[in-house]
C-alpha cells in the first residue's frame, strides 16, 4: 500500500536524481543560508510567542500522524488474515500438494484473444505432445528461486552456491505483531527437507516504531525500523555456504620454513540475510548493510509476497519498468518546459553553448 510518506520519499528520490533540480535547489539554499534564524531573531517577542504555539500544534499533529500509522498497521494485520488462505493455496499449488481444477486454470492471456479456433486447437495439440515427451514435474519447480533471480534487488544477493538451496524454498510468509505487542513484522522462509540445513523455517524479524522522537519530533515521517534479528541456521556439516576455507602460506621468521595454514572466513551468500549486523556503534559498511537489509525486508513484505506470481512471470517487473520510464519521461518533459533556452523546434541548447 502506497502510504503518504512513501509517496513523498519516491518523489524525493526522483527529484534528487535530476541534476538541474539539485543545482537550482543548492543555489536557493545558498541564498537562504542564515536567513531563517536571522528572520526569527528579528521578529517581535509577541510574534515569536505565537510561532512557539504553532510549533506545539505541529508536535500534536505528529502524534496524531503516529496514531494514523498505528491504525494502518492494524489494518495490515487484519487483511493479512484475509489474504492468508489464498497464499496458503498458492503454496499448495507451488509445492505440488494440490492440483488446481480446469476452471481454476482457465486464464485468457492477451495474446490468445485474437487466435482463431483452428489455431487454438493446433497450439493445444502441440502443447499436449510436448507434455507427453516430458516428465510431469511436481507443482511449479524453482518458483521462489525464479522470483529472486527476476528481481534485481534480490538477485544481487544471490551467489551460485545459494541456488541449489533456494530450489527447496516452498513459501515466504509475513506475520505481523499482535495488537498488544510492540510494532513489528516477521518474514518466514519455509523450506522442504534438504541436505543443507535441518531448519524447516528461517525467520527475520523487523522491529518498528511509530512515535515522534521527543528530542526531534519534527523529523517524524511515519514508522521506522529500529532493528532486526535473524535466526540461527543449523547447517549440515560441510554445507555452510556463509563460510569458506582458504589456504594461506606463512613463512617462519626465524627458520625461514614455509607452512600452509587453513583459515575459515566469511563468504558472500544470500543466507547472510539471516545474520544482520547488530545494533549499536556500527561502522559505515555495517550501516550500509543494515540500510539495504531494511529496504529488502520491506520490499519482500510489500511487493514480493503479495504479487509473487507476477514476479515469477516477469509481469510485475515490466510494470515497475513502465513506472520508471513514465517518471523519466515526465521529468524530461518538465526539464524542457522549464529550460529558458529551450526551443521546441531545435530542442535544448547544450549548457556549454549557453555559457559562452
Automatic annotation (TrEMBL):
Record localization: Nucleus
Record region (Disordered): 110-136, 319-356
Biased composition (Basic and acidic residues): 117-136
InterPro entries: NAP-like_sf (IPR037231), NAP_family (IPR002164)
Organism lineage string: Eukaryota, Metazoa, Chordata, Craniata, Vertebrata
UniProt xrefs under Gene3D superfamilies: 1.20.5.1500, Nucleosome assembly protein (3.30.1120.90)
Keywords: Nucleus
Organism whose genome encodes this protein: Scleropages formosus (Asian bonytongue)
Pfam families the record matches: NAP
Family per similarity comment: Belongs to the nucleosome assembly protein (NAP) family.
Biased composition (Acidic residues): 319-341
GO process terms (BP): nucleosome assembly
Keyword Nucleus: yes
Name of this protein: Nucleosome assembly protein 1-like 1
Predominant cellular place of this UniProt entry's protein: nucleus
Assigned GO CC terms: nucleus
Amino acid at each position: 500500500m502506497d502510504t503518504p510518506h512513501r509517496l513523498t520519499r519516491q518523489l524525493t528520490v526522483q527529484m534528487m536524481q535530476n541534476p538541474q533540480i539539485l543545482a537550482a535547489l543548492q543555489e536557493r539554499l545558498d541564498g537562504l543560508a542564515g536567513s531563517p534564524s536571522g528572520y526569527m531573531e528579528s521578529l517581535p517577542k509577541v510574534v515569536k510567542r505565537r510561532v512557539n504555539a504553532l510549533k506545539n500544534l505541529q508536535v500534536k499533529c505528529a502524534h496524531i500522524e503516529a496514531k494514523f500509522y498505528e491504525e494502518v498497521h492494524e489494518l495490515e494485520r487484519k487483511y493479512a488474515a484475509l489474504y492468508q488462505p489464498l497464499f496458503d493455496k498458492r503454496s499448495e499449488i507451488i509445492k505440488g500438494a494440490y492440483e488446481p481444477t480446469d476452471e481454476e486454470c482457465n486464464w485468457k492471456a492477451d495474446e490468445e484473444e485474437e487466435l482463431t479456433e483452428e489455431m487454438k486447437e493446433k497450439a493445444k495439440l502441440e502443447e499436449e505432445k510436448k507434455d507427453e515427451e516430458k516428465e510431469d514435474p511436481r507443482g511449479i519447480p524453482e518458483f521462489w528461486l525464479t522470483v529472486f533471480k527476476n528481481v534485481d534487488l534480490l538477485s544481487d544477493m544471490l551467489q551460485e552456491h545459494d541456488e541449489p538451496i533456494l530450489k527447496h524454498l516452498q513459501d515466504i510468509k509475513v506475520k505481523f505483531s499482535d495488537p498488544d505487542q510492540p510494532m513489528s513484522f516477521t518474514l518466514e522462509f519455509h523450506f522442504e527437507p534438504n541436505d543443507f540445513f535441518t531448519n524447516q523455517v528461517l525467520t527475520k524479524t523487523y522491529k518498528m516504531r511509530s512515535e515522534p522522537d521527543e528530542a526531534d519530533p519534527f523529523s517524524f515521517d511515519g514508522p521506522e525500523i529500529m532493528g532486526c534479528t535473524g535466526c540461527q541456521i543449523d547447517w549440515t556439516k560441510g554445507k555452510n555456504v556463509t563460510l569458506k576455507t582458504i589456504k594461506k602460506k606463512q613463512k617462519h621468521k626465524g627458520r625461514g620454513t614455509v607452512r600452509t595454514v587453513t583459515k575459515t572466513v566469511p563468504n558472500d551468500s544470500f543466507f547472510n540475510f539471516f545474520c544482520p549486523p547488530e545494533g549499536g556503534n556500527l561502522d559505515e559498511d555495517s550501516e550500509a548493510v543494515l540500510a539495504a537489509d531494511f529496504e529488502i525486508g520491506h520490499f519482500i513484505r510489500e511487493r514480493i509476497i503479495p504479487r509473487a506470481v507476477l514476479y515469477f512471470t516477469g509481469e510485475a517487473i515490466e510494470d515497475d519498468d513502465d513506472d520508471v520510464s513514465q517518471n523519466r519521461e515526465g521529468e524530461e518533459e518538465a526539464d524542457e518546459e522549464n529550460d529558458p533556452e529551450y526551443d521546441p523546434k531545435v530542442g535544448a541548447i547544450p549548457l556549454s553553448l549557453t555559457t559562452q
